[in-house]
Design goal:
By secondary structure, this protein is an alpha/beta fold. The protein contains 16 helices and 17 strands. Helix 4 (117-136) packs across helix 5 (148-158) and helix 6 packs across helix 11. It has helices spanning 4-8, 75-81, 95-102, 117-136, 148-158, 184-191, 194-199, 224-230, 241-244, 252-264, 371-383, 406-409, 428-438, 460-463, 467-470, 472-479; strands at 25-28, 33-39, 46-51, 84-90, 141-146, 168-174, 207-208, 282-288, 300-303, 310-318, 324-332, 340-343, 346-351, 356-358, 369-370, 413-419, 448-453. The strands form three sheets. It has an eight-stranded mixed sheet with strand order 1-2-4-3-5-6-16-17, with helices on both faces. Strands 8-11-10-9-12-13 form a six-stranded antiparallel β-barrel. A two-stranded antiparallel ribbon has the order 7-15. The two termini are 34 Å apart.
């Protein structure tokens, strides 16, 4: 039996046999919500639970993909190579869980109240750790929470949730913890209660989906009420009409989705840091008779006999068959087998086999998200910290008592990682978390470190060209 993640990486395995007919499905909480849990088996590997952000899924940690032939590592491969065993939980904000509901006969969840971060913190993480504990032992488990994954992980530790804080030893929180700070645009949307107004009508949608449907199809989860707000000149889109003109027509839909994500959540990454295959159609070339020299990224690679066949170099590395492999983007032309290639006018080999075209990855990395999650996030943003969902007046989770540090004090190591140029969650979200931890009168104040990376934003911490060299080693050190 397969799952959306095993189609991406067949090495992933399901949970041990249980009562569920689908071995990848994890029953969670009294309402029986079905999550997904996978692992990449590593002999004697220390287990690490990976928690993705909202509207995303665990394929966040499988990007860049091994099958794109780009020579880059994703976090799952990196951790496995360093002796850790990655476990990937698609918790209740996963786009896969949302799609499962959308594809059901009802098309709506049985209980909208399921979709808030409080339930995720108190139920989802513990359900996954129960399985990991049964397979790998109940103590000494590591965890990495990215974006809202970091937020629910922080909430679970703050609440000292049984079977969570007592099982975790090493924790990494990336971009967001207990404190919520956004850019001006994010704050403006939260203060104006836009989402609450949208769902106030009985016909309002339950999910929002930023993906662009195929020509002729409709996205019923991007309704007119959202579309009208999105088109207001008030909002700044990364790709305005003028900038979009410079984009290859086949990739414009991807960048329109990037615009929608930026409107819906906040600008999710620094585009200049990304591996190109997130936004671009890429062409993978196997090259023989190559001098195997290091080529500068961005250099223009052309056919010697047809200068109209060209593309910018995204990656260049030696493949498993000892051939040079080049990944091009913003490419055009044919690149026929046997044709000689030039880079900056110098010979760099011949095309050895038929080029492989890869579609941009972005449309598979984000999807439908329950509006109730966005509303709860807006409530937290207005309060500046995690709060009870739908509480009027707001009920902050942090009350200033020393006892709230108990779940953190049991950790051997806690590491905070943020990007100084984050335009989704402002760096203050991590800085305030660090300041709060520093006030801990217990041992926790001596077991945490903070890394604020000056050239990074948000999702590019995982999907950046240099993430495997500049970010992942920090995660490894945090888990050791």
């Amino acid at each position: 039996m397969s799952s959306p993640l095993t189609e991406i990486d067949p090495r992933l395995e399901p949970m041990p046999p249980g009562k569920e007919p689908n071995p990848f499905r994890l029953r969670c909480g009294k309402d029986g919500l079905r999550l997904m849990l996978h692992r990449l088996p590593v002999k004697d590997g220390r287990p690490v639970l990976l928690l993705h952000g909202a509207s995303a899924a665990s394929n966040t940690f499988l990007t860049p993909r091994a099958d794109t032939g780009n020579g880059c590592q994703n976090l799952v491969d990196y951790l496995a190579g360093e002796g850790f065993e990655p476990w990937l939980l698609d918790w209740r904000s996963s786009k896969y869980i949302a799609q499962q509901i959308l594809d059901s006969k009802a098309g709506q969840p049985s209980s909208p109240a399921l979709f808030n971060f409080d339930g995720a913190a108190t139920e989802d993480i513990g359900a996954a750790l129960d399985v990991i504990g049964n397979v790998r032992g109940k103590n000494g488990i590591g965890a990495v929470g990215f974006c809202m994954g970091g937020a629910i992980l922080s909430q679970a530790l703050l609440k000292n949730v049984p079977n969570v804080s007592d099982r975790l030893s090493h924790v990494v929180i990336m971009s967001l913890g207990l404190f919520y700070t956004m850019s001006l645009y994010g704050r403006l949307k939260a203060e104006s209660h836009l989402l609450e107004r949208i769902v106030s009508g009985s016909s309002g949608p339950f999910f929002l989906d930023p993906r662009i449907p195929p020509a002729g199809a409709q996205n019923r989860n991007w309704p007119p009420s959202i579309r009208d707000l999105y088109r207001l000149s008030l909002w700044r889109h990364p790709y305005d009409e003028e900038r979009m003109k410079s984009v290859t027509e086949s990739d414009r839909g991807v960048l329109e989705m990037f615009n929608r994500l930026s409107f819906m959540l906040g600008e999710p990454y620094r585009e200049s840091n990304l591996v190109p295959e997130i936004h671009n159609t890429t062409l993978v070339l196997d090259v023989e008779d190559s001098p195997h020299e290091t080529l500068p990224l961005g250099v223009m690679v052309r056919e010697e006999s047809d200068t109209e066949s060209e593309g910018e170099l995204a990656h260049s590395f030696t493949g498993g068959d000892a051939r040079q492999r080049m990944v091009l983007y913003r490419h055009k032309g044919r690149f026929g087998i046997g044709h000689k290639l030039l880079a900056d006018g110098r010979p760099v080999g011949r095309v050895a086999s038929a080029p492989v075209v890869k579609k941009p990855l972005l449309p598979d990395l984000f999807g439908a998200m329950a509006i109730q999650f966005l509303i709860h996030g807006a409530e937290n943003l207005r309060a500046g910290q995690a709060t009870d969902c739908n509480a009027i007046p707001p009920v902050p989770h942090i009350n200033g008592t020393a006892g709230q540090y108990a779940g953190f004090d049991g950790l051997k190591r806690l590491t905070l990682i943020g990007g100084a140029l984050n335009r989704l969650w402002h760096r203050d979200s991590i800085d305030r978390m660090a300041a709060w931890l520093a006030r801990n009168p217990g041992i926790g104040s001596r077991t945490f470190v903070r890394h604020m990376l000056p050239e990074y934003g948000h999702q590019d911490l995982l999907w950046g060209r240099k993430s495997a060299k500049e970010v992942f080693p920090l995660i490894k050190a945090a888990l050791e």
